[in-house]
Amino acid sequence: MSATRLDRRTFLGGVGAATAFGALGLPLAQAAGADMPLRERAARKGMVFGSALMAASLRQMPALGETAARECAIITPENEMKWRYTEKAKGRIDYRDADQIASFAAGNALALRGHTALWYRNSPDWLVPELAGPAGRGLLLAQVTQIVSRFRGRVTEWDVVNEMIEPNDNLPKSMRNWPPFAPGDVGFLADCFHAAREADPKAVLYYNDYGVEYSDTQGYGDRRRAGVLELVAALKSRGAPVDALGVQCHTTVGNRFLEQVYRKFMADAASLGVRILITEFDVNDKRVTGSPAERDRKVADHARQVLTVAFDESAVKGLVTWGLTDRFSWLSTSDDPRDRRPDGQRTRSLPFDENMERKPLWFAIADCFDKAKPRT
Ligand code: G3I
User: Fold this and answer.
1) Higher pLDDT, 31 or 171
2) What average pLDDT does the structure give for the chain?
3) Cα-atom radius of gyration of the chain, to the nearest Å?
4) How far apart are CA 70 and CA 64, in angstroms?
5) 71: closest CA among 93, 50, 91?
6) Mean pLDDT on 183-208
7) Residue 190: enclosing H or E segment and its boundaries?
8) 46: CA distance to ligand 1 center in Å?
9) Has residue 195 got a pLDDT over 80?
10) CB of 330 closer than 6 A to ligand 1?
């Protein structure tokens, strides 16, 4: 098993990469030189660093693959394992891009996340009418089994269920209103986790969600935090094999961040007996004006504030960014204009610029790993 391959057993017993030697076999006693990659800085503390990648981006930009292989110990296919990408037309399943990402991981001894088996935005267009009927949940459950089985032995951890909390839907426990899903039907979600465990007994299984960082004046963040904690607790109380919580951590400069609130959320999550991974980190600078250097500084400062609190919780095992380079960030092309900059400029939300040069955000992440308490 490669030094960075984290299977469920290893992950739950601490993070396997925390050995006398880092993932690249370098003596960890080596002081953190300025060029020490983020994966090494993380491994020195028993943590992991990684990033989401897109197959198309790897094909377009060889330097992206080189950087990912140097900096990451774990990667996530940004879209390639989603149902709407693997089966665009009913019955015509295409795993080529997902397999390309899996091959890249294997070829570089990287752990591989599966993303995501059940998500309300996963459905290919042809499926939507079928989901509304009585067979809908069976189709969703069958897909969980199919996708997890397909990558058994290659994917080390799965985002099994993604984003089932939405307070604005005004359902009990802030659960999302999604037609095939009877409001509050935690049992169906538990079934998805059981199906994933049966499909790949070694994979670490996550519930993954967003929006738990901030304290807005309307209480939306409070209801998201409560909803996520209640759902994980309810799943575990039913015996669902939820090993870990994915905290997406899509952040935005200028949002109201109260350290003590986030610290308590992380502690409350840890007390549920789950490991925590930051799974989709980026820093949206849509409200930040000024020069690129000024924007980069504010992005780095915000990241440092959030990650310092997150890494203080020893159950937090690492950080996966949602991309490595601003050139391919989803934030610049998001379907939702609220994600994008009003001036239409590319966001500066990731550790590397469009030329794969390290930005202040890279150094802020490095500093947070360097200052993190070692994980036992
Ligand atoms: O591949 C097609 C391309 O052929 C077409 O020309 C183009 C324009 O229509 O669309 C391309 O597909 C887009 C795809 O990203 C690949 O770029 C989809 O329209 C677009 O909806 C899709 O957005 C992705 C989004 O999830 C929805 O799946 C983003 O890249 C991806 O970063 C984002 O990631 C999600 C996580 O999975 C879950 N957490 C939130 C996060 C951000 O929304």
Assistant:
1) 171
2) 92
3) 19
4) 10
5) 50
6) 96
7) helix 186-199
8) 32
9) yes
10) yes
**Lookup: tokens for 253:** 């400069």
Instruction: Give residues with Cβ within 8 angstroms of 241, minimum separation 6.
Output: 193, 194, 196, 197, 205
**Residue entry with tokens 């089994």:** 145
Q: What is the pLDDT of residue 296?
A: 98
* Phi, psi (deg, nearest 5) at residue 56: -60, -40
Two structure tokens written together for 269: 């999550």
Residue with tokens 């840890």: 270
Burial of 301 (0-12, 13-18, 19+ CB in 10 A): middle
d(CA 199, CA 157): 12
Q: What is the pLDDT of residue 30?
A: 45
Does ligand 1 lie within 6 Å of residue 121's CB atom?
yes
Rounded CA separation 53/75 (Å): 7
Amino acid at 374: P
Helix H or strand E segment including 157: strand 157-162
For the residues 202-206, what does the mean pLDDT come to?
98
pTM exceeds 0.90, yes or no: yes
Tokens of 297: 């500084």
Q: Which of 53, 75, 79 to mutate to test the pocket of ligand 1 (most atoms within 8 A of CB)?
A: 79
For residue 360, give Cα distances in angstroms to 40, 204, 268.
18, 32, 31
Residue 135: partners with Cβ closer than 8 Å, 6 or more residues away = none
Phi, psi (deg, nearest 5) at residue 331: -65, -25
- C-beta of residue 330 within 8 angstroms of C-beta of residue 323: yes
Q: Are 368 and 309 in contact (CB under 8 A)?
A: no
Averaged pLDDT for residues 291-311: 98
Q: What is the DSSP letter of 375?
A: P
Query: Which runs of E-coded beta strand occur in 189-274?
Result: 204-209, 244-247, 250-252
Distance from C-alpha of 105 to C-alpha of 114, rounded to nearest angstrom:
12
The answer to whether 140 touches 93, Cβ cutoff 8 Å, is no
Cβ–Cβ under 8 Å, residues 249 and 291: no
* Residue type (1 letter), 38: L
Q: Which atom of ligand 1 is nearest to the CA of 122?
A: 28
Instruction: Give me the amino acid identity at 186.
Output: V
CA atoms 233, 234, 239, 244: torsion sign: negative
Mean pLDDT of 232-256: 98
